[in-house]
Amino acid sequence: MFALPSHVTDLARIEAALKESVQTPDPYLSEIASHLIIAGGKRLRPILTVVAAQVGGAADAELHERSVQGGISCELVQTGSLYHDDVMDEADTRRGVETVNARWGNLQAILAGDFLLSRASEIAASLGTEVAGLLARTIGRLCEGQIEELRHTYNAARPEASYLSSISGKTASLYATAARIGGLVAGFDRPIIDALNEYGEAFGMVFQIVDDLLDITATDEQLGKPAGHDIVEGVYTLPVLRTLQAGGVAAAELNALLGKPLDMAEREKALGIVRGNGGITASMTVAREWAARAEAACKLLPQSAATDVLFVAPSALLASF
């Protein structure tokens, strides 16, 4: 999704530092804590932090290390939240491997998720009180977004504003924080830091809308987890909501299916309705609007190779769908 010049970031360094961050004297805890990290991932949050730190020009070794650590703190929050999400969802697979709860049990998954959050907080504290406070507030926003989603589970009348508020908290807030940390560790002026924050929020909205579209349209193999999981679990995302808003026979048929858990046949019918009746196209329009906001934020940043990377990243996300 990102096309990264080698002089802008170092994915190998990010990957090595991430794995190192969850090693403990206890091999059992280390294995559980590193399970999803070893399974892979796009590492978009730490990449975003490292790139954001370079919008004023290339980073020296010290700044590069601080931005890597800042990005890792965000990635650990994300991974810890996935451990908790999989317990709540009773999920069996994630990133093409067994979930921690499926392999070791719910108690271990919850505690390992808590451990990852604590490591994230420890790393953030090493970067200063402002970064530590920012990450703490972001963890709170993740919880708020999750609660907003839960309160509308199986609600076919879920307002679109609820969906947007939820993904802003659950997803976009952490991208905003990743970008802001890059600006903070680089010591940029406040207008640049704020523009990076705006960029990260908008980019995160694009990311989640595209992710929700893929949950509707992709296969189990492509996703590394069951397709259509959200609609089965009563989480009605933007393409579902836009299909319902359109009205007509398709909306009535979809509405009749929703409001309860779906079996395999009902899932396929519901997915077919959403795929074939405008919900996908309408959701892509919203994603493009957020991509335009991210691009507008880039115009407030200094001209640099890193800024160029940030500018093209939202379009690359859209193209991945």
- Report the β-strand fraction as a percent range: under 5%
Class from helix and strand fractions: mainly alpha
Total discrete domains: 1
Which class in CATH terms?
Mainly Alpha
Overall pLDDT level: 93
CATH architecture level-2 label = Orthogonal Bundle
Judging from the principal axes of the Cα atoms, what is the shape?
Answer: globular
Describe this structure as you would to a colleague.
Pfam families: polyprenyl_synt. Belongs to the FPP/GGPP synthase family. There is one protein chain. The protein has 321 residues and is mostly helical. The protein has one domain: Farnesyl Diphosphate Synthase, CATH 1.10.600. The protein is built from 17 helices and two strands. Strands 1-2 form a two-stranded antiparallel ribbon. Helix 5 packs parallel to helix 8. The N terminus is likely disordered.
Give the SSE layout.
Layout: H1 11-21, H2 27-33, H3 35-38, H4 44-52, H5 61-89, E1 93-94, E2 97-98, H6 100-104, H7 106-126, H8 129-150, H9 160-186, H10 190-217, H11 220-223, H12 229-232, H13 238-246, H14 248-257, H15 264-276, H16 279-298, H17 305-319
Helix pairs in contact: 1-5, 4-5, 4-9, 5-7, 5-8, 5-9, 7-8, 8-9, 9-10, 10-16, 10-17, 13-14, 13-16, 14-15, 16-17
